[in-house]
């Protein structure tokens, strides 16, 4: 069975991001089409603390409100870490990337007491 571009993209999403993305789509689309009650996904602290409606703690994380352009932007930013890892991969082969501290850029002492050799460029023909 040949995979589509969307299926291939979805299978390559990291585990945590995939679950967050999926639950966000389910909760938001379900509430907008009337399958899930949107009022039950809002975080109302009195209901959580005194009526023990603990699903509101998770529902408010995965519910993004009405469908529209802001929803698309929020879903896009759910996948931003994946894009950052693509363009700034983790350290491999001596290259620092996203999530890694940069390598030290201090100049090595080269007989000039560790200072930069200003004006000592390369001559042509050497």
Outline of this structure?
The chain is an all-alpha fold. It has helices spanning 5-11, 15-32, 45-50, 55-62, 69-78, 80-87. It is built from 6 helices and no strands.
What labels describe this entry?
mainly alpha; single chain; 126 residues
What is the overall silhouette? elongated
Terminal CA distance reads: 60 Å
Rg, Å, rounded: 25 Å
How many beta-strand runs?
A: 0
As an assembly, this protein is single chain
Beta-strand content estimate: under 5%
Topology:
Layout lengths: L4 H7 L3 H18 L12 H6 L4 H8 L6 H10 L1 H8 L39
Summarize the structure in words.
The protein is an all-alpha fold and 126 residues long. It has helices spanning 5-11, 15-32, 45-50, 55-62, 69-78, 80-87. The radius of gyration is 25 Å and the shape is elongated.
